[in-house]
Amino acid sequence: MKQPWIRFSVAGAAIATTMLLVSVSAAFAQNRTDRSSTAPAKSAAGPVPRTADGHPDLSGVWWPGQDVPVTSLRVGESGSRPEGQPRQGPKTFASFYQPWAAAKAKTLDEKDDPALRCIPGVIGPHVSLTDQGLIGQIIQTPKFVVLLTETYQSFKLVPTDGRAHRDDVAPSYRGDSVGHWEGDTLVVDTTSFNDQNWVLDHGNVSFHSDALHLIERYRRVDATHLSIDATVEDPKVLTQPWTVATQILELAPFDQIMEVACTNTETASLLESAAKQNYGRK
């Protein structure tokens, strides 16, 4: 019989891992609203602001809003939905695994999540802009759109001047991005990923290959809302592309992200130790 303390230690560590980054980002966000700031208060929804070249201005700090939707997330799901609206389509990235990948996924669990070692994900539980956390910032220039992620302090530089993907950079966790405008929608095309992180986070098994291809569409709905759609392709491990549920983020009432460092690497060791002690027990 499994020892209760071993079983509980695994569950407790997994829960701690699941909530750590969300709670940290949420706490920072909550505290920010109580601080004096030069940032203007959140404005009422109005027309989409535009840059001098006529494109929608995506600049700003974006988050889910004051009520952080922690309880609305379920294992394996990415995306939020209005209350009462039915969930649509396959709910998990893993539902599209090829047979060999599905078999491999059964051998993995929370202790194998690269996020435990402070490795960023591809889209985290939401989108690549926020990754493992809940807050991201966009800075827009005539030639670049810069995506800054608060958690792990990671970033994407997205050139929008028509250049192609670089062929002189090594594969990375965040990949190599290029962007272009389709009307009022910014399309961000990202390739050149390594295969060392997961697509999702918080123990959601979602490994991928170096053939991963991420396509995101950013559209500013109005003055205070940003719509983000994403499609994940990986012909080496998936049977077909996976479409992520649309995310709607709000313009935050502060104008800068903060540092949210990842230092809780001890959780990985705890999970590994508990798993070893549990090995072979029934």
Can you lay out the helices and strands and say which pair or pack?
Blueprint: H1 4-32, E1 60-63, H2 99-105, E2 136-140, E3 144-149, E4 155-159, E5 176-182, E6 185-191, E7 213-222, E8 225-233, E9 242-251, H3 266-278
Antiparallel strand pairs: 1-2, 1-9, 2-3, 3-4, 5-6, 6-7, 7-8, 8-9
Helix pairs in contact: 1-3
What does this protein look like?
The protein is globular. By secondary structure, it is of the alpha+beta class. 17% of the residues lie in helices and 22% in strands. Strand 3 (144-149) and strand 4 (155-159) form a beta hairpin. The protein has helices spanning 4-32, 99-105, 266-278, and strands spanning 60-63, 136-140, 144-149, 155-159, 176-182, 185-191, 213-222, 225-233, 242-251. A 9-stranded antiparallel β-sheet has the order 4-3-2-1-9-8-7-6-5, with no helix packed on it. It has one domain (4-278).
What are the main properties of this structure?
3 helices; alpha+beta; disordered N terminus; 9-stranded antiparallel beta sheet
Characterize this entry briefly.
The chain is globular. The chain has helices at residues 4-32, 99-105, 266-278, and strands spanning 60-63, 136-140, 144-149, 155-159, 176-182, 185-191, 213-222, 225-233, 242-251. The protein has 282 residues and is of the alpha+beta class.
